[in-house]
Amino acid sequence: MADVQVTCINKQPRDNPHEGITNLGGPGWKWTRQQVINSINEKSNTFFTRVNGNRADIGVVHGPNGDYLRTYADGVWNDNLLALPECA
How far apart are CA 24 and CA 70, in angstroms? Predict the structure, then answer.
């Protein structure tokens, strides 16, 4: 199992708060949201990002409109992924 840092996202349209993330990535890789969800659910990889130098783990939330990804830090779910820059 790899522990993978996410440093960027793609979201279309970028400023629409009601549309989800389409891709997540980092140096040398970019996966679809569904690939990351599947990998977390299968326990084949863990994913995280850094917020002000602190680690925030990425988890799957089972929402009313399907699964989505959120960060989890200090016992609280939050939206740190949406603050990441666009992936190339």
Answer: 12
Task: Read off the pLDDT of each residue in 55-78 and give the average, rounded to a whole number.
Answer: 87
Q: pTM value?
A: 0.87
Task: Quote the CA–CA distance of 47 and 41 in Å, as a whole number.
Answer: 12
Give the strands of the sheet with 66-73, arranged side by side: 2-5, 45-51, 54-63, 66-73, 76-78
Residue with tokens 């783990």: 57
CB 36 within 8 Å of CB 58: yes
φ and ψ of 66, to 5 deg: 115, 175
**Which residue's entry shows tokens 């863990």?**
46
